[in-house]
Design brief:
The protein is α+β, with helices and mostly antiparallel strands. Helices cover about 35% and strands about 25% of the residues. The protein contains five helices and four strands; from the N terminus they run E-H-H-E-E-H-H-H-E. Strand 2 and strand 3 form a beta hairpin. One of its GO terms (molecular function) is L-rhamnose mutarotase activity.
């Protein structure tokens, strides 16, 4: 199992809207994430827009690839793209900056 932590940057002027959108994640998006192997997935948002994501999966690249092949993810990424600062890539799932794990207490 992989434990993956990543960062993104939400536009500070869109924080409330971003939070609200995640109170109403589409059920088919949640199903697609589960079907692609995303488990124990959490997002944490700081007041300056720093977004920290954490997910557990068997193979992160395979999980990303499985999501990339779904229509619902393409629609979700298009809807969410306006909330992020430009960090390269057109979609948030292409802008993730993965952080290396340096310690884990089991």
């Amino acid at each position: 199992m992989e434990r993956v932590c990543f960062t993104l940057q939400v536009r500070p002027d869109r924080l409330d809207e971003y939070r609200e959108a995640h109170q109403h994640v589409w059920p088919e998006m949640l199903d697609a994430l589960r079907d692609a192997g995303w488990r124990n997935y959490s997002l944490f948002l700081r007041d300056d827009g720093l977004l920290i994501g954490y997910v557990e999966c068997d193979d992160f690249q395979a999980a990303l690839g499985a999501m990339a092949g779904t229509d619902v993810n393409n629609r979700w990424q298009a809807a969410m793209s306006e909330y992020f600062t430009d960090m390269g890539g057109d979609r948030a799932d292409e802008r993730m900056r993965r952080l290396p794990e340096v310690f884990h207490l089991d």
